[in-house]
């Protein structure tokens, strides 16, 4: 068993060159412990044991017989007979059988390789999903803390406005009118930047003609401030619910990951702090060539085609005669005739046997079967290459899309932060545009989550390409 385990690890041929040491360790654990992968490996070992079986000569045949009453001959009394015969297939038959079994074993090995890379992709995919989940939880908690700060700020402004409602009526009226004008212009803003700039510009020149709602000090101060508090509390409740859902999602995802490693579902999973951008250094056509030549399923079909070629050659040789060589031994005992002892010498007779395969239909059918199976494998390989090409093209499209989205959401996140800073400065000064602050804050949260998703999608797509090419691409 120790020797088999060593062979198993050598055949895995895992090259861990990714960025995270913890992910490398998980891939190694999965390769050693996953029961499905071990089942494929044992099937490969079983196929290897077929080679010595078909490559051996037929067992020798030994015939023995004894007479209950000695057979009387002139040369003496025959007590029995011993015959030993060894049959030999036609020249090259055994090597053809071994070649066919070896190619079939190689096909089983490629099935094992395909299962291994599929397992690695599942482990990576689930690990990246866990990373995205943890980042979403972190970003959600950060934004929840920011909203709670907004709530405190809105409460302070509400209390300040309530205590100073008797003074500054004109100023509060202008503020109310500015808030109304800004919310209208923000509907057509891009990424929150235009609304932030409009808010800052409008705040410098307050119109003197206010609405009827702005003429009351209590409405402009207390009512408006309290509505800001209620708005932010609505956002807080929504974000708390989102955070709780994300927390609940962690358990099944972690259980799925641990099951791939064949360990306890409650085992803790180490996740990287951050994912760096990953690029493929291969040219696209070279990557396609590597996929269509090195994909385990293509190599499996190549091995099967070679196996059927050997099977076709073997069927032809099976139609040739088999030769046999042996010896016949007959023991004699002396017999007495007229008082004279006669004979008694044992006899040894070399023998040759030859089979005559005159019924040709079965041998012709064997060759035809091998040819048809070989044709079927060729067609299946062509279809597999077409499917791999489609998956290669789709994966590259997804990778380009992930790269574009990553660049876009980085820029959108920066712009949203700048807009939010401008709006917060305006709100801290005169209490305007709080609704716009919340809207841009929600935009910022959305951009941050989409950025994490795009980065994870990038790594998952590269993992898919590595699964197709059966090699590391970085």
Automatic annotation (TrEMBL):
Top-level division of the source organism's lineage: Bacteria
Major subcellular site: membrane
Location in or out of the cell: Cell outer membrane
Record's compositionally biased regions (Low complexity): 172-219
Organism expressing this protein natively: Antarcticibacterium flavum
Xref: SUPFAM superfamilies: Outer membrane efflux proteins (OEP)
GO terms for MF: efflux transmembrane transporter activity; porin activity
Keywords from the UniProt entry: Cell outer membrane, Membrane, Transmembrane, Transmembrane beta strand
GO cellular component, one term: efflux pump complex
Keyword Membrane: yes
Region described as Disordered: 162-225
Gene3D superfamilies named among the record's database cross-references: Outer membrane efflux proteins (OEP) (1.20.1600.10)
Name of the protein in question: TolC family protein
